[in-house]
Amino acid sequence: MATEQLENLGSEDAKWLGKYSQVHMNVFGTPLRVMDYGKGAHIWDVDGNEYLDFLAGIAVNALGYAHPKWVKAISEQAAKAAHVSNYFATEPQIKLASKLIELAGAPEGSHVYFGNSGAEGNEAALKLAKLYGRTLPGASPAIGGKPARIIAMTHGFHGRTMGALSATWKPAIREVFEPLVPNIEFVEASDDAALHDAFAETGPGKYGKGPVAAVIMELIQGEAGVRPLGADYVKKARQMCDDNNALLIIDEVQTGIGRTGSWFAFQREDLAGGVVPDIVTFAKGVAGGFPMGGMISFGAKLSALFTPGSHGSTFAGNPLGAAAALATLETIEEDGLVSNAEARGQQLRDGIMACGNPLFVSVRGRGLLDAVELAHPCAHAAMNWVLEHGLIVNAVAPDALRLVPPLVVTEQDIDQAISILAKIPTDLPND
Ligand SMILES: Cc1ncc(COP(=O)(O)O)c(C=O)c1O
Is 265:368 a contact under the CB 8 Å cutoff? Predict the structure, then answer.
């Protein structure tokens, strides 16, 4: 870490960050602060400075920090059995899978696979889609068929493991690892003609490609700067998948678990009450800060394609994580946090546009997954400025700040954040 950067920090922060960079691989850059403890939407660093946290561990800490119900659930489960392996089952894991199927409104016969992160949820979804692809006419290897394809979106983000990365668009993070998983293609997000053309490439003859096994998309592209896909496009994509026997995989790692004002973004009202996916992936908020991810496979027929040995992970469905997730989901339900996400999100977007800061051009997003578009590309300087003034946000694009507070965020927290954002100087240097 540069000496001048350390000079701006408190002595404990500087001491620990100096050590951090000596022993950690430099994949995350230098952390902004060394954090100590939190309560609700607030967190304190090792020098005792307090911050209002509108990043929430990147849309993870649904209940904020140290929520008493979450702490109780995790402590009680830790005192019983933290981990048992998948040679055994546990009650929390079974209850959690049932609850997720119920919240997703998935039909009878739907099944859950648990992993430990969003990327792993997507790995599982892509593997299931590959098995499904082999069942499509024209794709069967047994008859010399052409391998089925998976279509992903430009600007989409699905994780950094090799499979998930193969479906992740950003060339700067993907291309140096190529060749990756074959037969994954990108189409322009929100362009239904492009998706139509991609399906149409399926066919016999030398130039025809294999059938499409699945289309994978986020309904709001979070990492790309909180870019929502239009309802019309999503409905058309669902229809094209139906017409071509392809699966629709909706990645709800960032949008799911109440963050966008419904349990899952595919349930939102402008999709005519919902576009039903074939596979939904989840992670981030599900266990309120305990690492967990996974997928819900809709219906019995698709779910039956995974058989013993198809997939797995040592920690998958671990009871400690399952207890944390059950406490998270129960609290979201009991405390009405899905509607809080909707109401506080509206308050946040309205307040930002009304605050009169000429740096703010527009605000986009749903519920508590939002981004402010800036008049010039100074997002990093703006992020650092608000941090110095006690607010944590994230420079998600050179000209956009992402705001993803915990679902427990209060009206006063939102007012406080707006009052800090309103004062960001307009003449900050560009990134
Ligand atoms: C939509 C989406 N999918 C997948 C991932 C990967 O999740 P993880 O970092 O837990 O592997 C992310 C992470 O930001 C994400 O936003």
Answer: no
How many Å lie between the centroid of ligand 1 and the Cα of residue 37? 24
Residue 422 three-state SS = coil
Report how many domains make up the chain. 2
Q: Are residues 299 and 371 in the same domain?
A: no
Report whether residue 250 contacts ligand 1, using a CB cutoff of 6 Å. Answer: no
Nearest atom in ligand 1 to the alpha carbon of residue 156 is 1
Question: For ligand 1, what atom is nearest to the CA of residue 221?
Answer: 1
Token pair listed for 9: 């920090």
| CA 221 / ligand 1 centre spacing (Å) | 10
pLDDT in tens, 385-419: 999 999 999 999 999 999 999 999 999 999 999 99
Containing domain of residue 299, as a range? 71-334
Answer whether residue 66 is part of any domain.
Answer: no
The answer to whether residue 191 sits within a structural domain is yes
Which atom of ligand 1 has the smallest separation from the CA of 291?
10
Quote the pTM value: 0.97
Shared-domain flag, residues 384 and 283: no
Ligand 1 in contact with 402 (CB < 6 A)?
no
Cβ of 157 below 6 Å from ligand 1: yes
**Domain-located, residue 281:** yes
Ligand 1 centroid–CA 253 distance in Å is 6
**Where a domain ends, among 303, 334, 365?**
334
- Tens of pLDDT, residue by residue over 65-113, are 999 999 999 999 999 999 999 999 999 999 999 999 999 999 999 999 9
> What pLDDT score was predicted for residue 272?
74
- Residues 56 and 94 occupy one common structural domain: no
* Integer Cα distance of 222 and 270 in angstroms: 19
| Domain CATH code at residue 416 | 3.90.1150.10
Distance 80 CA to ligand 1 centre (A): 30
pLDDT tens string 201-233: 998 888 899 999 999 999 999 999 999 999 999
Instruction: Determine if residue 118 is labeled as part of a ligand binding site.
Output: yes
Element (H, E) at 151: strand 149-153
Distances (CA, A) of 360 to 229, 354, 402, 405: 22, 10, 13, 19
Question: Which uninterrupted H or E stretch holds 127?
Answer: helix 118-133
Ligand 1 atom nearest to CA at 223: 16
> Among the three residues 334, 355, 373, which one is the final residue of a domain in this structure?
334
Whole-number Å distance between alpha carbons of 341 and 42: 17
275 and 372 share one domain: no
Residues 87 and 162 in one domain: yes
